[in-house]
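REQUEST
  id: r-88c1
  op: predict_structure
  target: Mycothiol S-conjugate amidase
  payload:
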Amino acid sequence: MHTYTKIPDTALAIFAHPDDAEIACGGTLARWAGEGCHVILAVATQGDKGGDGDDPGRLSEERTRELLEAGRVLGVNDVIQLAYLDGELENTIEFRRRLVTLMRSFRPEVVLTGDPTAVFFGDLYYNHRDHRQLGWAVLDAVFPAARQRAYFPEAGDPVEELEVLLAATLEPNTWIGIDGLVDKKVAAMRAHRAQLARYQDSLDRVVAERARQAARMVGGTGEAELFRLVRGGA
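RESPONSE
  id: r-88c1
  status: 200
  body:
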């Protein structure tokens, strides 16, 4: 496992729900933003069925406000909402067209998303369908679509090879140090009250311990986030 030391000029994080990026890689986004990277966060769904789910319209508006608040905490430059409904995300041609348009418009060096191959996390949790659909769609958009002109020519000029960092993975091969940034990650997560209110009392402890555990896994000290680094194409 190696350390990802590069600070990209531009990074594009694409996740399914309003709180996913903060949980999966909030420390990394905060670190990069603090070191001058232009960070774009794209969220695929409205988060309309999260939380108590009793009023999807109200919940969607609330989670948008929370998303923007969390983005300010992390230092995100642009927040983009694709506004699909929870549970209805599909890896379709139209969805990939929108993702390719984002990639060709912002031209990031690295894309962050969730690992769609990580399904079963012990016997307590298996990965949300939206996460799996989103992860595969992002990978399909990165390669070959974003790189080859014949795919979605209306989306703009093709991009060069993109690195992809897959978070929430069971097969990490890369880590990024987030020493001193756990408090900022927790603050961003706390902004998502609709979804994470029931965890507010334990967030500091749990997030800090997981970050320390990640660092120990790679033989280090301090705090870290783990990823699976992949590249599309040769």
